[in-house]
Fold this sequence. Notes:
The protein is of the alpha/beta class. It has helices at 6-10, 62-69, 112-122, 127-136, 152-164, 182-197, 209-215, 233-236, 249-259, and strands at residues 24-33, 36-46, 50-55, 77-82, 97-100, 170-174, 201-205, 218-223, 226-232.
Amino acid sequence: MQSDTHSDRMRSDPGRSQPARPSLTFESVTKRFGAVLALDDVTFVAPAGAVTALVGPNGSGKTTLMRIALGLARPSAGQALVAGKPYRRLERPLTRIGALLDATALSPGLTGRAHLRSLAAAGGIPAARADAVIEQVGLGAAARRRVGGWSLGMKQRLGLAVALLGDPPVLLLDEPMNGLDPEGMVWFRGLVRGLRDEGRAVLVSSHLMRELEDIADRVVVINRGRIAADAGIDALRADSPETGARPGLEDVYLRLIASDPAARS
């Protein structure tokens, strides 16, 4: 008999009441670095069973927000909650939220397999799971090679393997498509759609608007630390009253940033 997997656990059981699926929630998150207000009362939810795109200019606060969600930075006010709890209160956090923040933050002398196995051991996760996810991200053939010689695209895939290591219901991915070739982009789209369809909450930060257009269900636009828009992608891309055509996400984003009062404050 196969062991209970995340997707098995998330299938509905007609004879049993189902608990609410985990989401990632930001409640009035504010962050100051001295006199600099990096985040200003940021509130939104990355819900279960959806891909939420987090977009904004460089320096708008996206990475700071993700670091707060992972307990790597403390908010000046407000809180980030994973399934209703701050990161510091999570038991076995790798099994609650998986993250890709910097795919290049690797020890170059380690093999991909050793890197994953060391993280698995630290998180109380079976070594077999490390071997499974390195195959899942398409790095099985390179698993015993030192990562110092890997391409950026391969390191991104390894970073995604790290995020998936604990089979978490919530995923937080910062610029996960950087360095991926066209085949890798197609693979990534399929991976993220599959994670969404399993009922997971997926938050993706990226500047690649055309790629986000193909995978995002919701879009949160942040500008100068403030939320400029938070809506379903179809609502954001509603037909333009001027042209009658449906604008692309990139056009919508540029219009929002240009018209946002935060840009002029």
